[in-house]
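Subject: sequence -> structure tokens, single chain

Hey, anyone have a minute? Need the predicted structure for the following. Not urgent.
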Amino acid sequence: GRMPDAEAYLKKGLEAAPGDQEISLSLAALYQTSGRFEEAKTLYTQLGERFPGDSRIVYNRALMALKMQQFAEAVTLFEKYLDMPGAYQKRGSVARTVEQLRQQLQMPPPKWAKK
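Reply:
Had a minute. Here:
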């Protein structure tokens, strides 16, 4: 609950270890949690370019799009997440979320959906 302190510590950590993946991911999540979506999106985009195989980045971006009611973007990101190796832990719940969003947006079912 002490977001300003956490942000200060994370920024100091990045000064000591510029570009550190875990610290940067934590800072982006802090921005996301505190509603600073543009800052979070910028950092997630940078992280995604540097670490394209990190499913956490894609998942967090999808959650943020969902919170911002950018449902089509959330679907795209969740589906990208589902194609990633690290998605196994949340595969079922994410697939259900995608299905519900697609129905809400009147989008056709994805190729991977079971019929």
